[in-house]
Design brief:
The complex is a heterotrimer of chains A (about 210), B (about 650) and C (about 250). By secondary structure, chain A is mainly alpha-helical. Chain A is built from eight helices and two strands; from the N terminus they run αααααββααα. Chain A has a two-stranded antiparallel sheet. In chain A, helix 1 crosses helix 3 and helix 1 crosses helix 7. The radius of gyration of chain C is 20 Å and the shape is elongated. At the B-C interface, helix 3, helix 5, helix 6, helix 11 and helix 12 of B face helix 1, helix 2, helix 3 and helix 5 of C.
Chain lengths: ~210, ~650, ~250
């Protein structure tokens, strides 16, 4: 059971990261300079960023590892499957999201790797903002999002991310033992809302870039 | 050949070994006399316990705590499922927490009176004394009894009494008490003191040198016949209401364990004393497999009525107040709807027999909560009875918050059982019988919320003392399962099982059981008469013949086969039915649940005959199935209460 | 015979014993009254089968009033069927319609091996309870029951958890075959009560250890268990169990 606690903590940390990441990315709506400026500011907090990155990497490993273990145990725990299985509906929280956490998780993991290769470790170009030379991330963003295949892949993953987060948020609190009859339904609704906000936020950026630039 | 009253031979009178002295001191006095087994010697003894209801589970746990080795057997897949779990309303205790002048004596008096003066004073007084310890014990175990806002325990009233002494956990008191006892039992399993044998059915008692030394059981999964040796055997296998087929008992509840013990020499006491509970959901069709009880506690707030006009088919809400007959309130102004069960049941039957019944078959009366809802509000009613109302709606599809419940009496509890002395030992040394399986404390009618009390008193507080005395004062040489008595038992069982499977007739076990049930309900049910009882005594031997000629038991004896289990139980029920009819026929009086139509007061109340029948009837198996059983009387002595005509007016 | 009566097709899992491979058999029952309970409908089937010289279908049942927890069955994909807060024995045929096909399977989990047909072995639950589903008090040593005041709220909350009937539907419905709801309900009951405090941490550690040893899956918060529970026991109990577990582990 301790596994679920670590998994939940790791997941919540990523959740916070996604929120922060989204807020940062939204600067793109203020134009290329805003995005590049934001990226540059982050560069300035190098030590903090590296610490966060290490922590995120570690969290991802534990989160994924325990996710796979839970999935494996589940296969072990019911060797003979039901010929017919249905959810009874409310108050069950069983959804497509909750049943596909491992699969959406794997896709997201693959995405994260590609995403890092594309951007973090992508081509290094520079531009100047207010006379200062900074990395030009925008040009990379524009180029990547104008490849239709990648665009579609990215958008599909964002939808799957939404599904993953929909179950993830309340579930993390439940795993940490913070659920009760009063707050759990509220947490669930909040989770759905946040999942939609995060997924929709990330979803609009590529389309915006594709259409505008 | 049928049993007959003329052929009853009377044997030696029975001695209940009740201690001398004033009634308050009897139990203390007995405890002082009882020998005690030293802690080191306790682990040398093995005790076999059959049944894991309140009595069996509490006895197993309490004996294991003392250091005895306990082997516990149950018919279900888990000891937690015994039918005590279905008791709804509550458990009585003379705590006087409500300051309503309750006392041990008052609980004692109510129980003796409720039982229509057919119970032993000594036993009942001890039961009332121990009732207070039971509540303490249950609370210490974490049983979540209902509480007041101040944090103290809440109480409610039950039928037949004028005080509030019933402790309850919503409508699931039996469940919570049983889970408490089951927890105590499982703790001893963890400590290695108890070994549990689930899905085992006891099919014989093994008596060696005149003492109970073991049991033979069938493993219900593998079909294997297994033997177990012990220094004493405890039967806590419950009652036999399923003799009526339709009852509030669980489907697995049966009389086989006690019946086979009877055939090995344990006397069966007062078999005709059965309780028909007044508030069950009426039967809705021929296919019905059981009747569901609605707790007696409902009569605290529900009012019982029928239309004043015969055959009134209007929906209840359209029958105006002045056209309703609240017959219990009319006939019994002081107790009203809270008369004892036998009185309430009989009156419901009278009203329906007279043509005032409601429902599809005219075999129901209304239990109406509209006044209570008006007076106390719907939330109050929901808080108190919510789960019962929910259950009623599930089964009938009607909402009792809006439409009055329809209820009708149903077989529920059997006061009769194996005869035991004050120490709870049967006529076979080393065979102890606890809970509903014995006959001891309820006389001819049990008061509501007293079954849980008796089961736990027997298991937690009586047997741990009395069994030690038996073990310490008896020479019990080592025996093995290879003794000839064990082998004979096993052979007899195997033959019986083979015979059951070989008939391959045309009637299923269920069909024959329904036939038995209808006979018993019509003639040995709520009201009995000589003609009907004689008829049953002729019909049952025919039914036995029909059984052996025409039963169809499918499957094999090598694995799980419920039809085979039920067939064996059915045969025992038919034989027990004969004994019940004989007992009812010989008792030429009415008392409590035993109502002989020939013996009633002008108002239709039970008319006792204390001069001739103030005794416990203990029946001895005559050694074969044909001869009429032998009657042993245990005279009832009343030194502290004077038997009177029961009045609840 | 009433014109409301139904004819139904039953697809039932038959399995000779624990070691055999099972499979579905199809049967037809006629003249089923809407007032029958589901188990009474199966009684009718079994009587028919017996008369046809076939072996009846074995299924566990006892009290038939929804409290003993012995009945089970997965009915059309849902443990205890699709009525809320209802055990199979209290499910009535009025919730089905004429001509319907009903699929009936046993509870499926590695920790609940099939014994025969629809009967499974749930003794894993007993072994978990043996590890701490009680308060360790010996008989006779209790103080007066009113010496420990317990607030009505605490007693009610304990009762909400204590209502569990141990049927195992939570395991059967859980996509992971987890026993978390059953175990957490027992742990919660004692967490609410002062009597439960001395063994609080030992209890949760031992019971959870046994639960894992029995081969149940982990909980991933689908919440399906609460939906199928005949007593509607809340998954808030599972959260509470985790809280207790974390506290106990950190001690």
């Amino acid at each position: 059971m301790g596994k679920k606690v670590i998994m939940a903590l790791a997941g919540l940390f990523w959740f916070l990261f996604l929120l922060a990441h989204l807020l940062g990315n939204l600067t793109i709506f203020a134009g290329p300079d805003a995005l590049n400026g934001y990226a540059h500011k982050l560069e300035g907090l190098k030590a903090l960023v590296i610490a966060a990155e290490l922590f995120l990497a570690l969290a991802l490993i534990f989160h994924a590892m325990y996710g796979i273990i839970v999935w494996w145990e589940k296969w072990q725990a019911r060797p003979q499957k039901y010929a017919m299985y249905r959810s009874k509906g409310k108050p069950s929280y069983q959804t497509t999201s909750s049943r596909t956490m491992l699969y959406t998780g794997i896709v997201i993991f693959i995405f994260v790797v590609i995403h890092l290769l594309n951007f973090k470790f992508g081509r290094f170009e520079t531009t100047t903002i207010n006379g200062q030379e900074v990395r030009d991330l925008f040009v990379l963003v524009k180029e990547v999002f104008h490849q239709p295949g990648y665009l579609i892949f990215y958008e599909v993953v964002m939808i799957l991310l939404g599904f993953h987060l929909r179950h993830a948020f309340w579930s993390a609190f439940q795993s940490l033992g913070w659920g009760n009859q009063k707050y759990t339904p509220m947490l669930y609704k909040l989770g759905v809302l946040l999942a939609i906000i995060i997924a929709a936020g990330f979803f609009t950026i590529p389309i915006y870039v594709y259409l505008k630039y | 050949m049928a049993f007959s009253v003329d052929k009853i031979k009377e044997g030696k009178p029975l001695d209940g070994r009740i201690p001398e002295g004033p009634i308050e001191k009897k139990w203390d006095r007995r405890k002082n006399e009882l020998k005690v087994v030293s802690p080191n010697n306790k682990r040398k003894y093995t005790i076999l316990v059959v049944g894991t209801g309140l009595a069996g589970a509490s006895a197993s746990a309490a004996l294991a705590e003392l250091g005895y080795n306990v082997k516990t057997f149950c018919i279900q897949d888990s000891p937690r499922r015994a039918h005590s779990i279905a008791a709804q309303g509550g458990i009585n205790a003379a705590k006087n927490y409500q300051n309503d002048n309750d006392s041990v004596f008052r609980l004692f008096y109510d129980t003796i009176k409720g039982g229509d003066f057919r119970a032993r004073e000594g036993n009942v007084y001890r039961l009332a004394q121990l009732s207070v310890d039971i509540i303490d014990q249950a609370v210490a175990q974490g049983v979540p009894f209902a509480r007041e806002y101040g944090g103290l325990l809440a109480n409610r009233s039950f039928g037949g009494v004028l005080v509030s002494r019933t402790f309850y956990a919503r409508g699931q008191t039996g469940q919570q008490l049983l889970l408490g006892a089951y927890g105590a039992l499982m703790r001893q399993v963890d400590l290695g003191q108890v070994e549990i044998f689930p899905r085992r059915e006891m099919l014989d008692l093994v008596v060696i040198d005149g003492k109970a030394r073991g049991i033979v059981v069938r493993n219900l999964i593998t079909g294997e016949i297994e033997s177990y040796v012990g220094h004493a055997v405890i039967l806590a296998s419950g009652g036999y209401s399923n003799v009526y087929y339709l009852s509030t008992n669980a489907k697995n509840s049966n009389a086989t364990a006690v019946w086979r013990a009877y055939k090995k020499g344990a006397y069966f006491a007062n078999p005709s004393f059965t309780q028909i509970h007044p508030t069950a959901i009426p039967q809705s069709g021929h296919y019905q497999s059981k009747l569901t009880l609605m707790s007696e506690s409902l009569r605290n707030d529900g009012r019982v009525w029928v239309p004043k006009k015969k055959g009134d088919k209007r929906p209840p809400n359209q029958i105006p107040e002045e056209e309703r007959d609240y017959y219990l309130e009319r006939k019994y102004p002081s107790f009203g709807n809270l008369v004892p069960r036998d009185v309430a049941s009989r009156n419901a039957k009278f009203m329906c027999d007279a043509g005032y019944g409601v429902g599809e078959f005219g075999r129901a009366v209304y239990l109406d909560f509209s006044d209570a809802i008006k007076r106390r509000g719907i939330d109050y009613i929901r808080d108190k009875y919510g789960n019962l109302f929910e259950m009623y709606e599930k089964i009938t599809g009607e909402n009792p918050y809006e439409v009055p419940m329809k209820i009708y009496p149903a077989p529920h509890y059997t006061m009769g059982g194996l005869w035991v002395d004050y120490n709870l030992m049967s006529t076979i040394p080393g065979l102890f019988v606890l809970g509903e399986a014995n006959f001891s404390d309820h006389g001819a009618n049990r008061l509501g919320a007293s079954a849980l009390m008796q089961g736990l008193a027997d298991g937690y507080f009586i047997i741990p003392y009395t069994i030690g005395d038996y073990l310490a004062s008896t020479d019990l040489p080592n025996v093995t399962t290879e003794e000839k008595e064990f082998q004979e038992s096993r052979n007899a069982i195997q033959e019986f099982v083979k015979r059951l499977l070989s008939v391959k007739g045309k009637k299923t076990v269920m069909e024959l059981h329904i036939e038995l049930g209808e006979l018993m309900w019509d003639y040995v049910g709520m009201a009995r008469n000589e003609k009907g009882l004689k008829l049953v005594l002729e019909k049952l031997p025919e039914l036995k013949k029909e059984f052996w000629n025409n039963i169809n038991v499918p499957g094999s004896d090598k694995n799980l086969n419920k039809a085979l289990e039920f067939a064996g139980r059915l045969y025992d029920f038919i034989e027990l039915g004969e004994l019940m009819a004989l007992d009812a026929l010989h008792r030429n009086e009415s008392c409590g649940g035993h109502f002989r139509e020939e013996y009633q007061t002008p108002e239709g109340e039970a008319l006792r005959d204390d001069e001739h029948f103030s005794y416990v009837a203990g029946w001895e198996y005559p050694g074969n199935d044909e001869d009429t059983p032998i009657l042993h009387k245990e005279p009832l002595v009343f030194e502290n209460v004077k038997p009177t005509q029961r009045s609840y007016k | 015979m009433s014109d409301k009566n139904m004819t139904l097709t039953l697809r039932i899992w038959r399995q000779k014993d624990a070691n055999s491979k099972g499979g579905f058999e199809t049967y037809t029952v006629t003249d089923i009254s809407p007032d029958m309970s589901f188990l009474e409908m199966l009684d009718v089937l079994n009587d028919n089968l017996t008369k046809e010289g076939k072996e009846p279908v074995e299924f566990d049942n006892d009290c038939r009033e929804g409290i003993c927890g012995m009945c089970s069955l997965v009915i059309n994909g849902i443990p205890h069927g699709d009525q809320h807060r209802t055990a199979t024995c209290q499910l009535h045929m009025r919730h089905f319609h004429d001509g319907q096909t009903i699929t009936i399977e046993p509870f499926r989990a590695k920790a609940f091996p099939v014994v025969k047909d629809l009967v499974v072995d749930r003794s894993a639950f007993d072994r978990i309870i043996a590890k701490g589903g009680y308060i360790s008090v010996n008989t006779g040593s209790a103080q007066d029951a009113n010496n420990i005041p317990i607030s009505k709220e605490a007693a009610d909350a304990a009762m909400d958890s204590a209502e569990c009937i141990g049927c195992g539907a939570c395991v059967a419905a859980c996509p992971n075959a987890s026993a978390s709801l059953f175990v957490s309900a027992k742990i919660s009951q004692y967490t609410f009560l002062p009597q439960g405090q001395p063994e609080r941490y030992r209890r949760v550690l031992r019971m959870v250890e046994q639960m894992d040893a029995e081969g149940f899956g982990g909980c991933s918060n689908h919440g399906e268990c609460e939906a199928v529970c005949p007593k509607g026991i809340s998954i808030a109990n599972i959260a509470r169990m985790r809280r207790e577990y974390v506290k106990a582990s950190l001690r």
